[in-house]
Design brief:
Layout: H1 2-24, E1 34-35, E2 38-39, E3 48-50, E4 63-64, H2 69-82, E5 86-91, E6 94-100, E7 107-115, E8 120-127, H3 136-160
Antiparallel strand pairs: 1-2, 3-8, 4-8, 5-6, 6-7, 7-8
Helix pairs in contact: 2-3
């Protein structure tokens, strides 16, 4: 009877690991870049946030700036690199970067689009693998926002002193 129990537990564990493995298999690298002048919408998985996505679960506010677009773009690039990002593609109003997690080496993609007319920088942060990211992408964007805003405050204080 014990042998049968061990076999059943083994089979259940094997099926669970197999299921988890399939969920973590690559979905194929996401299509990065602008679509009709905007960042791509998020897939129907909770591992992506985007300031140009209309769904409530994926939406995150863009970065707002009141200085020059060039200065804001530079600050955001510096914030990306300071927080561990690697810039992959840079064009005049578009940038893509990648972040690799420390423990398991998962890669997330971050994209930025400058919107000069509205004084905002749109952002999209998405995991390449899996279904859920436990809030990692949303947290990353909010940390970038803090760095972006704090570096602007420091530069303003330097100018005014």
């Amino acid at each position: 009877m014990k042998n049968i129990m061990y076999w059943l537990i083994g089979i259940i564990l094997a099926l669970a690991l197999l299921t988890l493995g399939f969920k973590l298999l690559p979905k194929g690298q996401a299509k990065l870049g602008l679509m009709a002048g905007q960042l791509s919408p998020c897939p129907n998985t909770p591992n992506c946030v985007c300031s140009e996505d209309k769904s409530a679960s994926a939406y995150i506010a863009p970065f707002v700036f009141n200085d020059s677009a060039d200065s804001a773009w530079l600050r955001l690039k510096q914030a990306l690199v300071a927080s561990g990002g690697r810039i992959e593609t840079e064009e005049p109003a578009y940038l893509s970067a990648s972040f690799t997690t420390k423990w398991l080496g998962f890669v997330d993609d971050v994209e930025l689009r400058m919107d000069v007319e509205n004084n905002v920088i749109h952002i999209r942060s998405a995991s390449r693998l899996g279904r859920s990211d436990f809030g990692v992408n949303r947290g990353r964007v909010e940390r970038l926002r803090l760095l972006f805003n704090s570096s602007h405050s420091q530069s303003e204080n330097t100018v005014h002193n």
